[in-house]
Amino acid sequence: MPRASAPPITWFPSPNCGPRRDGARPDMIVLHYTAMDTAKAARDRLCDSDAEVSAHYLIGETGQIWQLVEEEMRAWHAGAGQWGSVTDVNSRSIGIELANTGLHPFSEPQMAALEVLMTGIMARWNIAPERVIGHSDMAPDRKFDPGPRFDWLRLARQGLSIWYEAVQPAETNIDEFKKLSQAIGYKCKIPDEFLLFAVRSRFRPWAEGPLDAFDSAIVHNLAERFPVDPPVTSA
């Protein structure tokens, strides 16, 4: 079934942006939730010069899309964090905020609008599905969004993100789990519980308890298929 056409995008400029540093081009998408009661409240904050935060796009619960920053520019959405070798995520990414408190599911119109928006962005900038991450992926020690209610599997089924293949439980070892998580892109110099929460929020949102064999199998599968910084091979 063809994907629905995107609703109109409303230009609502934010002053909170600047040039991408060192000639960087976006090769990532970072997804967020606003953690605010309404899309309008989030939009106003993202456009408030005193707040010093922004994103390229904001999507409301009904599927309304506001563009706040030109894609060529550096929005201020990622802050401190890292994904693989990238430490200035703002210069290398396009940020999309979803109006949601983090306490309820994301609406169907909102997800449909996100899918169409992402399809265009990924085509324009040649962004691979493995370069689509959540805020909690790149800053697992301080951020939780887009949270366990976000449907990553839905995106993966449309080629807009990644998911693990069928896996067999693997040996449970926290050091190996950290090594493999780092190979995917996660920053591992953080408390183990933050790393485990970030991985589970993305791939096992309702899992509980200590690290188990299924967690280990997931990161092993993903690290084999989607290493964040693949080794350079000679011609």
How does the SSE layout of this entry go?
Blueprint: E1 9-11, E2 17-19, E3 28-33, H1 39-46, E4 57-59, E5 65-67, E6 73-75, H2 89-92, E7 93-98, H3 108-125, E8 132-134, H4 135-138, H5 152-157, H6 174-184, H7 192-203, H8 213-225
Parallel strand pairs: 1-5, 3-7, 3-8, 4-7
Antiparallel strand pairs: 2-6, 4-5
Helix pairs in contact: 6-8
Give short descriptive properties of this protein:
Lysozyme-like, six-stranded mixed β-sheet
Describe this structure in words.
With 235 residues, the protein is α/β, with parallel strands linked by helices. It folds into 2 domains: 9-157, Lysozyme-like, CATH 3.40.80.10; 174-225, no CATH class. It is built from 8 helices and 8 strands; from the N terminus they run E-E-E-H-E-E-E-H-E-H-E-H-H-H-H-H. A 6-stranded mixed beta sheet has the order 1-5-4-7-3-8, with helices on both faces. Strands 2-6 form a two-stranded antiparallel ribbon. Strand 4 (57-59) and strand 5 (65-67) form a beta hairpin. Helix 6 packs parallel to helix 8 (213-225). The relative contact order is 0.15. The mean pLDDT is 93.
